[in-house]
Amino acid sequence: MPDPYGDRALLTSAMTKGYDGVGDDERGRLRRYLEAVVADRTAPVHTTVAFNAAYFGYDLEGDGYGGSPLCLEDFPVITSGECAPVLPVGAMVCVATGSDPLYAEIVYREGAHTEVGALGEIPAWVSGAPAGAEGPGRPGDGAAPRRRELLVPDLHAFGPALSLSAAQLHRLRTRRRWINEDGHVVVDVRYPSSEAARRDDVTAYADHLLTTAREQLLSPFVPVSLAALAGGTQDDDLRAGLLGLLDTVRGVLASSATLRTWGDYAMTRSSLADCWRDTGPLGGDDLRYLAAAVERAATPEKRRYGLTKPVTVYTAVGPRLRGFPGATELLRGVGYAAAVCRANVALADVLQGDSDQGLFENGSRVTLDDAFEGGGVWRSHHPGDAEAPGDPLASAGRGWASTLPAASEPESATALDPIDVPLADDATLDTGELLRSDEEEIVWRAPLRLAQLIGGWFPLHPYVVEELRGSHGARPTVRLELDHSGEVLDNEAAQDVVAELGDESGRLTGIIWPRDFFPGLLLELRRLHGGSVIRLATTRLKERVWIGDRETGHCYDPRVLTREDTPGSDRHGDSALGLGPRQLVMRTVRRCGLLTLDGHALMDRSVLPNAVYGRRPARSQAAALESAVADLLTEGLLEPALGSRDTWGQPHFPQRDGQRTIPLIGYRPAVPRVIHPWGGTDQGGEGLRGVQFVPGHLRRLRPGCFPSEVQRAAFREHCRGLGKADGWELPYGYTFVTEHTRGR
User: Fold this and answer.
1) CA–CA separation, 472 vs 497, rounded Å?
2) Is 481 helix (H, G, I), strand (E, B) or coil?
3) Residue spans of alpha helices (H) in 508-642
């Protein structure tokens, strides 16, 4: 059985590119391990929990994470009944108690609205309501929304040594102060924004790891560090690599023949079969009864005279399960998560097997309306044939929509609708990044923008503006010295330029930019205190890359380059006039698609024609654009992708389970330009076939074995590369395998 701390690391550099970029052998090794993890754990295993197992080293011999050298003191502390920050599924936490702390992994979460009936019935407005909603049709101000959530912690995830005894847990449950009677934690979660509240658990967990749990993520004691897998410690590299790893884990779970998924939660098919055969509480008989009850929930009583009114009933699965006799003990601890996921799978199977897109023979239509609140809210409506059919397992949120002033079908999204990916913020790109400000000099960094390239200017950092204005006036002349790393400059190397200084902002004007400067090129500027010289320098990359039609060997901001270095845009101007269909498509996707931090642009394919022309195009124009898209996809200059659209018409990427699938087109910016030993190049970026790079990683030793001094020193050097100047010492029981290549 593969082991995270074994001879071969489970997570590889190829996996940072996503599931589609991983070979069958690597997928197979990770799949076998994750299948064993799902079979070993009592709770369903979420994609984020599966990532934790492979990344932090979950031991299948009974110790869980207890054998992994994680720093427990870094875990965020939560207290039942209090306000808490966002804690997505997968977060490792410390549950506060009056005595011994409880170390746990959050393995499940759901909305815990208080307006729930004894049989799981809830008001219509709760189903699909946004975080912070205050009542029917009242979404709240949305600035910093709060939502009551139920978190299910796995209190035994860290092995017997860090788990409380059954008697201790019973006392805590009885007191209901730190955990409730079921061993769960109910908290009021505060979100930084309404957009953050809409993120799915996988995206939210990536944010959590890169911020709250950053020290844990970048620990050198994990089997193989994300920094080594992603090839750097820059935030952009880490985020892109982390999202790629999560996509790989999600794809591996979904592709397993022995697992079944509900959303991002994975269960073994054998456990589901055992549940259907079980005749006890929450077994097959109760699941059949639940499905029948949901089907009949909206069926009106027969009347002798007159027509019956339409009836709609919303049923929350979690509270409904508590109404079954004998279910109380089975819903304690992680058993609640298992029961809820099994019930949702059972309802989905009945829906797909016994109905026509949710329409049953009794005239009722049953659909999933909210996948988060109360363990999943199912909508039963009669008469069902009066509604347009659709995907019955798409979380439509019709309950909330029905309470809005103008309840209608969502309008189609425009090209600028927000996509659920890390976005580039134009305001932050203009501000620049302060690198150092000490007694000697001020150093800052910013990307070159298209408008600056055309206009011959560049912004100054506010610290420089303040100092220059105080000592040299509002329009001083300063000396600008350019150093284009590895390149020879002529007249541009030293220039006299004017600094136009306002009260808070300022810029250098009259700059003659070197010929091969382009939008997105990263520039580092420095000025000695009291001096009249500003030095501007570029930084070389380790290898040259292709980005669209451009080749460069210098560092750049991929977001600016994707957005502004488009067809029709150069130092002479910015216009789409005269562009052909292929160029128009590329320009529009890069300009109108929203950006990921690594410079990918994603756009809803259906709105491309309107975005290109600003109106509905003529039939011949639409056909030309579609032909151009097909050619660009065939040539790999654009890539197909799948997203989803929610009930408000808002698209999301990655695709969210339960939402209507929509096609996206994506622009992938950079391709390495690999130099072969005989001097040729491989613009496809495939490099030397048959060779796999293996980053440095930890390996567990057999009992009685110890690492050599060479490996101890190698580990310290590895840690310095991760940002700790004096390194770390190898944890007891582990050795370090240095980076190397392996032939396939």
Assistant:
1) 14
2) strand
3) 558-564, 581-592, 608-613, 619-634
For residue 676 the two structure tokens come to 């072969």
CATH 2.40.330 fits 426-547, yes or no: yes
HSE on the CB side for 566, CA within 13 Å?
25
CA atoms within 13 A on the CB side of 703: 0
pLDDT value of residue 672: 55
Q: Residue 124: pLDDT band by 50, 70, 90 thresholds?
A: very high
Report the alpha-carbon distance of residue 31 to residue 19 in Å, rounded.
12
Q: What is the pLDDT of residue 420?
A: 36
User: Quick one: residue 578, left, alpha or beta (phi over 0 = left, psi -120 to 50 = alpha)?
Assistant: left
Q: What is the pTM of this model?
A: 0.64
Q: How far is CA 471 from CA 444, 447, 468, 480, 547, in A?
A: 20, 27, 5, 18, 42
How many angstroms separate the CA atoms of 221 and 65, rounded?
A: 12
Which residues have C-beta within 8 Å of that of residue 603, sequence separation ≥ 6? 415, 588, 589, 592, 593, 594, 611, 664, 665, 666
Q: How far apart are CA 553 and CA 544, in angstroms?
A: 4
Per 3-state DSSP, what percentage of the chain is helix, strand, and coil (rounded to 5)? 30, 25, 45
Angle between helices 24-40 and 235-255 (to 10 degrees): 70
Looking at the chain, the number of H-run helices and the number of E-run strands are 21, 36
pLDDT digits (tens, 9 = 90+) for 364-384: 999 999 999 999 999 999 998
Mean pLDDT, range 615-628, rounded to an integer? 88
Q: In angstroms, rounded to a whole number, what is the distance separating the alpha carbons of residues 345 and 376?
A: 11
DSSP class of residue 657 equals T
- Separation CA 292–CA 303 (nearest Å): 22
Q: Give the per-residue pLDDT at 634.
A: 86
Q: Distance between terminal CA atoms of the chain?
A: 20
Does 428 or 174 have the greater pLDDT score? Answer: 174
Query: Residue 424: enclosing H or E segment and its boundaries?
Result: none
Give the pLDDT confidence of 186-220 residue by residue, as tens digits: 999 988 888 788 888 999 999 999 988 988 898 88
Q: Which helix (H) or strand (E) holds 151?
A: strand 146-154
Indicate the SS3 state at residue 291: helix
Contact of 553 with 486, CB cutoff 8 Å: yes
CATH 2.40.330 spans which residues of the chain?
426-547
Determine how many CB atoms are found less than 10 A away from the CB of residue 383: 18
Residue 728 pLDDT grade (very low, low, confident, very high; cuts 50, 70, 90): confident
Strands, E assignment, 397-549: 433-437, 441-447, 457-459, 477-483, 494-501, 506-509, 522-528, 533-537, 540-547
What dihedral do alpha carbons 23, 26, 27, 32 form, nearest 10°?
160
Q: Give the span between the Cα atoms of 342 and 507, in whole angstroms.
A: 61
Inter-residue contact 44 to 260 (CB < 8 Å): no
Separation CA 352–CA 576 (nearest Å):
49
Strand 477-483 relative to strand 365-370, pairing: unpaired
Q: If you search the block for the tokens 């699941």, which residue do you land on?
A: 287
